[in-house]
Amino acid sequence: MTALCMSVDVRTRLAVEEGVERSSRPTVSMLSPHPPTACGLATHSESLERALQGLGHRVRVVRAHDGAMESDCGRKVAGNLVHGVLPTVRRAAMVLSDADVAIVQHAFDAYGGRDGEEVLDVIRLVRAPLVTVLHQIPADPAPNERRILEELGRRSASVVVPTHSARARVAATYDVPLDRVVVIPRGARAAGIRPLGNVTPHRTAQVLSWGLLRPGKGFETAIDAIAILANSGLPVRYTIAGMTHPREALQHGERYRLLLRDRACERGVRHLIDFDYSFRGTEHLSRFVRSSSIVVLPYDSTDQVSSGVLVDSLAARRPIVATRFPHAAELLSPGVGLLVDHDDAAAMAQAIGSLVEDHRLHSAMTRATEPLALRHDWSTVGSAYSRLTSGVRSGQPALVA
Known about the structure:
By secondary structure, the chain is an alpha/beta fold.
């Protein structure tokens, strides 16, 4: 009986201690696009919100958007920052200030004004310590882009970047105090799943590219690579999945998707290419990516320091062929993925073909993704943000890389 009582006492004490620890964690506000907006940054902010809440933080989100779905989001967020609507600036700042720490998810196209400069109007009014998460870090910024990033850096207690190469770019390009810049990997929506073990290859290789469609994603090169493989006799099917980016759709409708379909017809491979218009949520994404044999990231950009598609594909344990954009160049070490030069369809076809023909290489590369998947799991990433916000609140931001 005594042992039982002691066991209950211990459990009670531990529960009380855990409750005190959880209740003492900083309250967090966050400014970002947020669902129902369909974009990677919105999904990223929602995933971070859930991860922090799971660790005991109270999180209040201010959703940045263009007003098109304002009536849909009042149930999910604490406030709205509507592009070009001045009264929402002060209200957004008030919500963000009502927290121990305010997190700003930054991309230039996420906010109103030229180059998204309206974000500065908000942060100048915020009284809580700021953490800014940089999702875009141009290597050759326009003057206004430089001004925005540098002011964000000066006004932030900490600046979060996803990779060490991104941190080096900040140091080389921007007047931002480097001791404030910390590396926290981008979280992966599909991480935390069991390892695949031995993988049985598809009879016909299923190649997948996914994400919001807009020019600059390099799908033209990938279509040309599929044509090269088809002419060589390799059985390959290619799926380009994702809805058109909302801003692209607003300006040009489905013109880009139609151009890609025309290119597939011109190359004689339209029958081998599927266009999937869906935007998949977290619960369906992992299964969908796993239905492929190989993921291809053919991006034109040489600037991209953060790619949700990249880390989600790794988390889904898929071998990856990617152009040498910075995020891929840092993560895809030999044995984890294959890198090719930009706009080089022949090299891309060769890389895809090597994974199709060499089942041992495909299986080994699949297994090699596991450590990276664990590193990008939201439980790991959320804990890093939790430590960072605790440090910011205490005036001693931690280097959590």
